[in-house]
Amino acid sequence: MTSYQIAAAVRRPGRFGRLRALARGRSTLVAAGLVVAVVVLVAVFAPVIAPYDPNAVDPMAVYQGSSPAHWFGTDDTGRDILSRMLYGARPSLIGPALVTVASGVLGTLLAVTAAWFGGWWDRIISGALDVIFGFPGLVLAVTGAAVFGAGLRIAVVTLSIAYLPYIARVVRGAALRERRLPYISALLMLGVPSWRVCLRHLLPNLLPLILVQVTTSFGYILLDVAAFSFIGLGTQPPDPEWGLMVAGGTSGILAGRAEQSLYAGLVIVVFVIACNLLGSGLSQRLLGEDR
């Protein structure tokens, strides 16, 4: 056996081991991404794939179990649970998506400007973020609903403020480290405007971290939006929404018909787990973190 063959034989186990490790990590990432993609597609095409009108009441079909006519059964007014879950995906995802975009964009803007200018501006931003971080998102949402009234719009605004620190504090720390790197000083010495350095160089290097943060936060935001609807301050009946369906099915639990709360709660749990796994997988791929 030549020295080349010996070297190849020695390297082969390590190479296959790395490929197996990569496949294991990627399979989890792909599975989580598929779950998220399927739920998004369901929300988009709900009117096409839903077998019934989600608000169609049938007094003759109250609390029916699973059957070919109603795969997930019916609720206390005879409405098809599967159709309501399919239609409920829209408000259940739109609210968290708006909160994620608003908190992500504003949090990134505050973090980058605080890291770039420093001084009194950084102290003001950091202090404000610390104050907001001390209030749970659901408490802020309930306070906003008490002042301005119930509704999904109030939940989106208050939760966007509540989740600012979750994005801004992490991005600020990374922006501070990036701000001290030599290439930033070199670009400034060459006369490149500060805004162009931030947009063309600093921000693109922070995008992987921002993507990981917003992906992971999306699941927790969905939980808060669902909880807001559960207590009756978010989406209002008879519109279908997962958190509202969990609340609406509590009366059926006492009657031995827990299908509505069970299925809606299960979908929420699975989707949140998928978001967490997706965020963890993206952190390994984009940030090189070994979790």
UniProtKB/TrEMBL annotation:
Show the stretches that span the lipid bilayer. Answer: 28-50, 93-117, 129-148, 154-171, 209-233, 262-282
Q: What is its main location?
A: membrane
Q: Which UniProt keywords apply?
A: Cell membrane, Membrane, Transmembrane, Transmembrane helix, Transport
Domain of life of the source: Bacteria
Tell me where it resides.
Cell membrane
**Where do the ABC transmembrane type-1 domain residues begin and end?**
89-279
Topology versus the membrane: Multi-pass membrane protein
Asked if the Swiss-Prot or TrEMBL record annotates the protein with the keyword Chaperone, the reply is: no
Fetch the Pfam families from UniProt. Answer: BPD_transp_1, OppC_N
Query: Which Gene3D superfamilies has this protein been placed in?
Result: MetI-like
Q: Is the Transmembrane helix keyword given for this protein?
A: yes
> PROSITE patterns attached here?
ABC_TM1 (PS50928)
The similarity annotation says: Belongs to the binding-protein-dependent transport system permease family.
Write down what this protein is called. ABC transporter permease
Q: Which organism is it from?
A: Streptomyces similanensis
Source organism phylogeny? Bacteria, Bacillati, Actinomycetota, Actinomycetes, Kitasatosporales
